[in-house]
Every structure is written in structure tokens, then in C-alpha cells.
Amino acid sequence: xxxxxxxxxxxxxxxxxxxxxxxxxxxxxxxxxxxxxxxxxxxxxxxxxxxxxxxxxxxxxxxxxxxxxxxxxxxxxxxxxxxxxxxxxxxxxxxxxxxxxxxxxxxxxxxxxxxxxxxxxxxxxxxxxxxxxxxxxxxxxxxxxxxxxxxxxxxxxxxxxxxxxxxxxxxxxxxxxxxxxxxxxxxxxxxxxxxxxxxxxxxxxxxxxxxxxxxxxxxxxxxxxxxxxxxxxxxxxxxxxxxxxxxxxxxxxxxxxxxxxxxxxxxxxxxxxxxxxxxxxxxxxxxxxxxxxxxxxxxxxxxxxxxxxxxxxxxxxxxxxxxxxxxxxxxxxxxxxxxxxxxxxxxxxxxxxxxxxxxxxxxxxxxxxxxxxxxxxxxxxxxxxxxxxxxxxxxxxxxxxxxxxxxxxxxxxxxxxxxxxxxxxxxxxxxxxxxxxxxxxxxxxxxxxxxxxxxxxxxxxxxxxxxxxxxxxxxxxxxxxxxxxxxxxxxxxxxxxxxxxxxxxxxxxxxxxxxxxxxxxxxxxxxxxxxxxxxxxxxxxxxxxxxxxxxxxxxxxxxxxxxxxxxxxxxxxxxxxxxxxxxxxxxxxxxxxxxxxxxxxxxxxxxxxxxxxxxxxxxxxxxxxxxxxxxxxxxxxxxxxxxxxxxxxxxxxxxxxxxxxxxxxxxxxxxxxxxxxxxxxxxxxxxxxxxxxxxxxxxxxxxxxxxxxxxxxxxxxxxxxxxxxxxxxxxxxxxxxxx
Length: 739
Ligand SMILES: Nc1ncnc2c1ncn2[C@@H]1O[C@H](COP(=O)(O)OP(=O)(O)O[C@H]2O[C@H](CO)[C@@H](O)[C@H](O)[C@H]2O)[C@@H](O)[C@H]1O
Hints:
Elements lengths: L6 H10 L4 E5 L3 E6 L4 E7 L4 E2 L8 H36 L6 H5 L3 E2 L19 H10 L35 H17 L4 E2 L1 H8 L4 H16 L2 E3 L2 E3 L11 E5 L11 H15 L3 E7 L8 E11 L2 E12 L2 E7 L15 H16 L1 H4 L12 E6 L5 H10 L8 E7 L7 E2 L14 H4 E4 L3 E5 H8 L2 E4 L2 H6 L10 H6 L4 E3 L30 H16 L9 E8 L5 H12 L4 E8 L1 H13 L4 E5 L3 H10 L2 E4 L9 H7 L3 E5 L2 H6 L13 E3 L4 H17 L1 H12 L5 H16 L3
Parallel strand pairs: 9-10, 9-14, 10-13, 14-15, 15-19, 19-20, 21-22, 21-24, 22-23, 24-25, 25-26
Antiparallel strand pairs: 1-2, 2-3, 3-4, 5-6, 7-8, 11-12, 12-13, 16-18, 17-18
Helix pairs in contact: 2-5, 2-7, 8-24, 9-11, 11-13, 16-19, 17-22, 20-23
The structure holds adenosine-5'-diphosphate-glucose (ADQ).
Pathway: Glycan biosynthesis; starch biosynthesis
GO biological process, one term: starch biosynthetic process
Catalytic activity: [(1->4)-alpha-D-glucosyl](n) + ADP-alpha-D-glucose = [(1->4)-alpha-D-glucosyl](n+1) + ADP + H(+)
């Protein structure tokens, strides 16, 4: 046996849970590993005194002293690193370079061992480490009881112990022997990494399961960030408060993630909420399918096989580290070339895709090294999104937690839209690969179709917590109209439901920095330059779309999916009245063919006033939001709605149907008190829409001061994700301590 053991071997042993093995470490110390506990239980001086246990107190001081010294060294090093982060951020912002965004600073990697700081990363070339270096290590970690491994039977996948090297027992304080082994492990880890780059968050991850030491480093971090607000392009950005002792490992799992894949608001949320959680100090990952050949993602070399519909399907895992978040892309021929048709194909095609994706996602924290270190399954919460990933909480429970694996991992399911549920005939159950006694989770009685199979139902019952994207929608979900057949299940689980209003990405959707406003006559603008800047954008939009360029005509916009939800038909009914007004109407959308046809018809019938852009164009969505005066959102239901938030951030006044998140976020204008943010109407009715829009147009034309007030109030709200991230953190914590 060698006289020392590497962190790699240590992880390996830990992951395999070998029975009471003893290994000598450097500095005359050895550790003992117990299979039963699946962790290092004892550390000894080679003289024979065991350390950190009650019966062997005598020998403990020397080695603990050494460990403490190491620990203090690491803390000092980390403090130094954090200081350097702040200094680099200051340096970058002082250059005020357009193309250096804060995101790049966040992805700067730091070398350990007092080496000079080097910038090796950018969002375009985001992965900073040699993931191949950890590839072999990872391959060697036996997929602990890979529930779906090609080698194991799906029906009996549960043997052995969990392989997570950083599992926190109960997620709480460590016992002295654990602390000792922990610091020895850390020491080994750092020695291993002495010649590699290591990210600050990886360093944090090494601390993530302790308590005392964690408090210390968080205090250090807080003192640094409080004293030095981050500047971004001349604007002082106060960093959000840190999670402190509540810091967790968080993995968002979703079928789409902007900017790589997006069909609507879900993609935006998954692209931005994780960054806000990371800013609070959590270690955050997004797992999403690799639909295309994304430049940022690097092959980790990790390959795993999962069973879908009786076949073994191999997945590969790609990885990128951007803006403090690990993005893991699950690659399989199942997903290829679907970036423009994510939910396309037959019902069974989609179901099989999501089965494979959820199976592959649940094991990411075991297999995929991020920053050189797997997340492990202690102190970990998954956030699944909508029905596409609602199988994840079910798999987590049925295949892992109920079998004594991933015992401390929790799941939160977010409802972005209950109208899509993953329904099918009861026999679809056999595709999800679960023992038959789980069938009742999925069975739902429908007054029209009788019993059917429903994935969302199973996810809602199984998840530890459920979030939806506004308070209004949380209430609506419990009504028979709003719950779309799931209201009873949601009511039964009301205790674990919470509404949290979405935020917006304040860099992507900010008129000051918007990259889509930098050409073709558009311009960036802010509150100070609102009138001139927005005016210029309006003229550029009219020019680009071939509408008469007129400053005094109100430009009304609609952006969204063309379907029943978004209430496009209400706009259609209001067209005769609207065309009697001096207005311009711009509609951007894609969806139901009959509604797409309708948009084209409107444009040809009223060519001097209407533009109907059929298609999905992120650039046009930004330009229309900037160049319009009014945004129309007559949605029949709207769980949150992002477009009205984007609109207000751009000084564009919303007129909305008062439902769900629209009601929560658009306070009606009160002309007597000069308060409010826009106009609302109470029912999905074209007459009501015309009435509200009529009042809005009157204010635009006749009451300029009131109009400016509406714009300014909209622009000065704090719509950032930071508030929502703090509330998500509360939910994650509630889940963590739920048994
Ligand atoms: N043709 C087009 N071209 C370019 N961009 C287009 C577009 N059509 C839509 N978009 C963009 O897609 C997003 C739509 O987001 P929404 O939140 O308004 O609705 P969606 O119904 O997709 O999301 C669901 O999830 C979100 C997130 O939780 C909830 O806010 C919402 O209420 C719920 O229905 C916006 O970024 C918008 O600009």
C-alpha cells in the first residue's frame, strides 16, 4: 500500500462503500472506512491512537491541530481568492468595455498555491478545466446500483450503498471523526489540484457539507461582498445577500434552457433563475438535453446507459460553466436536431425522450464532474419543471430514496403551465419503467375519458415541494377551471405549494444593454434617455417593418404563442374597433396554423396599420418590446407571464387580462393618485379588452405626464431574479428539512 492516498482513490473507496478498510495517509495518519455507514468513520495516528473518537481523546490533539492548521490555511486562501474576485470585477468594470460583461468575470478561474490569477474562461469557451482529468476517475466510480444500467435488471436495481463522497448525514453538523476525515480529504483534494485550476465554487463545494467551517467562510465572503458592490457598465450593482449557512447544491432539470433552446417562458426561467441562485452562494447546475451541437459544451467523457422501452440507450454528458452555473447537456440521438421542435413527434416519442432524460438527469450528481468534483447527493435538491421532468421526483423516490439511496436529496416541482400534463392511455405506464405498484400515482379519472395516465399528477404527489410562478396562479390551480383536472391533487397537496413570481434577466432584457438594439437604427436607452431612446427605437421598428414612421401614433404590440391560452382571438374580435383608431398594431407569434393564417390576413387587409410576423425571432421580440408603446396580453390564463415584465422594464405599458401572474404584476393605473403600472380587464372578453385599451389610448394621447409616470414606475421596479431566488431558497430549505 502506498504511504499516501489520493483524493481520487478516497472518493472511489467512499463511493464503493468498501467494508472497514484502513489506509495510511501522509503525516502519519490513517483512516478507516465503514461499509455500513458508507463514510470514513475513524482517523488514527499511525502510532495506534485513534482520533476523533471518545475512547481515544489523547491522540487527537496533534493531528487535529495539524488539520486545523490546514483548515486555517485554506480559509485564508479562500478569503484571498474572494478578494481577488472583487478586485478583478472592479478592474473589468472600470474598463467599461462593451464586450466584457460580468458573466466573464464570474467565470474566471483561479489557480491555487499562490499562483497568479489567470483568466482562462469566457462564455464562449466556458469550460475551464480539463474534464478529461476527472473523466477516468469518474468512469471508475462504479455506477452505484445504476437503477437503469444496462447490466442491471430494471426490476431489481437496488443493491449496495450510495456512492456520494460528500453525502451529509442529515445534511447537518459533522461528528468529530467526520470533520477530521473531511479536512484530510480536503487537504488531499487541494494537493491533487495544486497544479490545476480550480474555481471558487468548487472550493466552496468542498466545504458544502460542513457547518462550522462553512459559517466561517461565508462570513468572510459576506464581508467582502458587502464592502465592495459590483459595478457593471457604470452601474453599481449591489450583490444579493448570500445564503449563508443555508447554502445548498441545486440542480434544475428542464426540457429547454435559453439561450440554447427556447420555445417560451420556461426556457427564459431556466436560463436565468440558476444564475440568481448561484449569486446567493449556492452551487447550481442546470441539466438539459443537448438538442444541437452547442459550442460551449465540452464532452466530459462520461457515458452511461439507461433503459428505455426495453432498449439500452447510451447518453453522453457535455458540460459548460457560465456565469457561476454548471450547465450539463445530456446527449443522445433521441434529442438530436430537435432544437426547433422540442415537443414534436408522437405522444410516445415525447414520452420516451422524457423517460430517458429524467433517468439520465437524476444520476448526474453521481457521475458528472463539475469543476473537477461531482455534486454528490448530500445537501442536494432537484428543481424539476413542468410535466416533461415531472418523472424525476418519481424516479428519485421510487428507485433511490425508497431504497436507501440519495436519502438526503429532495425534489421541487415547478408548475409553469398546468395545461400540458403528459397525458395518455393507462398503458403508457409501462413505458416509464416503474414497478406496477406505482401505477396509482399516475392514474387519474377524467369525467370524459375515464381513467388515464398522467405524469404531472404523479410528479405533484411525489415531489417534496411544489412551486408555481405566481400567487394568483397558485390560487387558480386549486379551482376546477384553473387546475385542468389536477385541482384536487393540488388542493390535497396545498401544504407544499407556494407561488413565487418569476423575475427577469436584467442583462438580457434591459434596454441599457440589449444587444438587439445596437444596430439597424435602434439604440440602447435608460430611464434618463427614455424619451429620445425609445423614440429612436420606435422609428427604427416602424422602418424595419415598413410601417409609416410617425412618432405620435401609438404602437401596440402582441408577442406570444398563437394558441387558445394567449387570447389572440380576442384581439381578432377587437380588430374592427381597433382599426377605427389611429394606431399601429404589431403581432409576433407562431403556433396554431389557423391563427398564423389570421395574422397574415390582418396584415394584408390593413397594410398601413398592421404587421403580423409569423415565426419565432428573439431579436424581433426584443426590438418590438423596445419600439412599442403598449403591450397587449389578453391571455385567458397566464401562470406568470414574462412579456409584461419585459415590457415594463422597457417603458412599454401593459394592457392585460387580470389573471394569474398578470394580475399579480400589473397594478391598474389610478389617475387620481397617479399610481399603477398599466390597464387590466376582468374577463376574457373582446369588449372588455377594447374598453381597457381605449382608456390606455386616451391617456397616451391626452395625458402625457401620466403616461410618463406609468413608464417610469414600470422601469424603476426591481424585477430581477434576486428576490425570487431568495424565495426559492426558502422552498429548498423547507424541502431539505422535510422527512
Ligand atoms: N414568436 C416569438 N418569437 C420570439 N420570442 C417569443 C415568441 N413567442 C414568445 N416568445 C418569447 O417566449 C417567452 C414567453 O414567455 P411567457 O412567460 O410570456 O409565456 P409561456 O406561455 O411561454 O410560458 C409559461 O411559463 C412561463 C415561465 O414560468 C410563465 O411566465 C408563463 O405564464 C407560462 O405560460 C418570452 O420570452 C417571449 O418573448
